[in-house]
Amino acid sequence: MPYLDRQNRICGFLDIEENETCGKFLRRYFILDTQANHLLWYMDNPQNLAIGAGAVGSLQLTYISKVSVATPKQKPKTPFCFVINALSQRYFLQASDQKDLQDWVEALNRASKITVPKGGSVPPATEITKAPVVAQAQERKPQVAYKTEIVGGVVVHTPISINQDGGEGGEVAAHPLLRRSQSYIPPSAARPPAGPPPLKSGFCVKQGNVRKSWKRRYFVLDEFSISYYKCEQDKEPLRSILLKDVCKTHECLVKSGDLLMRDNLFEIITSSRTFYIQADSPEDMHSWIRAITAAVQALKTRPREMSFVRCPSAARPGGSSGPSQPRPAAE
């Protein structure tokens, strides 16, 4: 769901079609900045990217002529899809649900000072003609392909240049840190269920224990523990936090240092450590807090011997069933 950050910008995750009519959607973090008159999208929340990492795409709000829900004819197999018409281009984006779709369409319409036409009226043409030729060329310039590799079990997209004859050239200058893509994962690649069914799962950003760096992890909550993985396909967690050790889970209101500018931050307090976790939206944060609190309470009401039925690790198919040792480095 879109939310307002500390700078009063509307933010949130959406899936955007890589190229019009290609049908491939990539997950990106969007920032609607009305003060700067831009819609920006990043590989991830900029707070989690390396210093200096810029937006991977942008659109000036004054170029937008219409924002509307995509028709079944335009995207028959893409639910919760909407389209942004800007100059001679169309941007197709996919929301997570119906409310997310409505919120984004309304926010973009308000930001670009557009009301949904009732009688076929169109916005003033002056907003479109203001666009300089150079800026229009920049909107059409993404002539960059991406080489897909698997590094340490993580899908990585590396930009590569394309020669005019269609061949691939050398790799373009990329950011020193490889960024993990959040592109669509086919159902066949997802791990099959094993052990207790998960009560909740999804991506969050967690602060490391030693280096205090922030990294995106895939969290899985079940009735005995909350585990986090380097990516969704991993079979062994980086660490499992036993619910019997959790003392309290709540929103982090007292912040200092690096935590000060973090939105949607909550903490899991255990007997040995406090885990700081950042969700993608306020709704997601409160959902995690409710789910973890309910699971801890449910575990306390179980017979004492039930606490020892499940081993400490959240084993995955093909992985070892023994206890998982947490990585001592930055996790």
From TrEMBL:
<dbReference type="GO" id="GO:0005886">
    <property type="term" value="C:plasma membrane"/>
</dbReference>
<dbReference type="GO" id="GO:0005737">
    <property type="term" value="C:cytoplasm"/>
</dbReference>
<keyword id="KW-0539">Nucleus</keyword>
<protein>
    <submittedName>
        <fullName>PKHA2 protein</fullName>
    </submittedName>
</protein>
<feature type="region of interest" description="Disordered">
    <location>
        <begin position="311"/>
        <end position="331"/>
    </location>
</feature>
<keyword id="KW-0597">Phosphoprotein</keyword>
<dbReference type="InterPro" id="IPR011993">
    <property type="entry name" value="PH-like_dom_sf"/>
</dbReference>
<comment type="function">
    <text>Binds specifically to phosphatidylinositol 3,4-diphosphate (PtdIns3,4P2), but not to other phosphoinositides. May recruit other proteins to the plasma membrane.</text>
</comment>
<feature type="compositionally biased region" description="Low complexity">
    <location>
        <begin position="312"/>
        <end position="331"/>
    </location>
</feature>
<feature type="domain" description="PH">
    <location>
        <begin position="197"/>
        <end position="297"/>
    </location>
</feature>
<dbReference type="InterPro" id="IPR051707">
    <property type="entry name" value="PI-Interact_SigTrans_Reg"/>
</dbReference>
<dbReference type="InterPro" id="IPR001849">
    <property type="entry name" value="PH_domain"/>
</dbReference>
<dbReference type="Pfam" id="PF00169">
    <property type="entry name" value="PH"/>
</dbReference>
<keyword id="KW-0472">Membrane</keyword>
<keyword id="KW-0963">Cytoplasm</keyword>
<keyword id="KW-1003">Cell membrane</keyword>
<dbReference type="GO" id="GO:0005634">
    <property type="term" value="C:nucleus"/>
</dbReference>
<keyword id="KW-0446">Lipid-binding</keyword>
<keyword id="KW-0677">Repeat</keyword>
<feature type="domain" description="PH">
    <location>
        <begin position="7"/>
        <end position="113"/>
    </location>
</feature>
<dbReference type="GO" id="GO:0008289">
    <property type="term" value="F:lipid binding"/>
</dbReference>
